Amino acid sequence: MKSVIQTACIIFAATSITAPAAAQDAPCELHVWPAERMTSMTTGLLGGGLIDALAHSGRDASNKAQLASALDSPSQLDALQSLDLHNMLKLSPGTIIVRHEQPLERKTMNKIKTRRSDSVSKCYSELIVADVFYQKAAIYGRSLRTLFMLRDFGNDQKIDFEYKAWGGNGLKLFPPKEGEDAVAALDELVAVFQKNFDEYANNARKSIDARSSRKGG
Fold first, then answer.
1. 108-147, pLDDT tens digit by residue?
2. Cα dist. 99→30, 32, 102 in Å?
């Protein structure tokens, strides 16, 4: 009987020692959400306003449909995951990327300050695509702009670090005119979406480095 009790005590002691270490060694998580909202704005020489919007409403509706086709939720997530997110965002080694196919409601992104998933990971962050915005301006030409949000929570429900900014680059093929290669134009959207994230990530790293310097000081 004594040997059984001794064995049980040894097992319990071993469990008590190793459990915190296992929890501490659990990998970090980056949760990624695609954008819900696609926007198209075409402005002519009038420079915007109601009359300009009405004049281009048909074209903008068509552009939004094509944006949604080329950059639907899976395509946005695939485009981001094909990039080196670990180095681009200076993630901890071994960080797991968790996809969320269902976009977050745009109106809740700035209001909700807690974690947007039910994860209880002790090392947790979020990357949210907030807006995908196509614009054609009479003077500046065609471009795709994307708004990204990076939020780091650490080990609780409080945001420790947040970086929100646009990335934007020009377009040459989208939207395709009649007789032009529509597939190439849609592929260009994905490529520029990735380029926008690269621009965003470059600026995010500067903010991350500045935060690290402040903490180190």
1. 999 999 999 999 999 999 999 999 999 998 778 999 999 9
2. 9, 5, 9
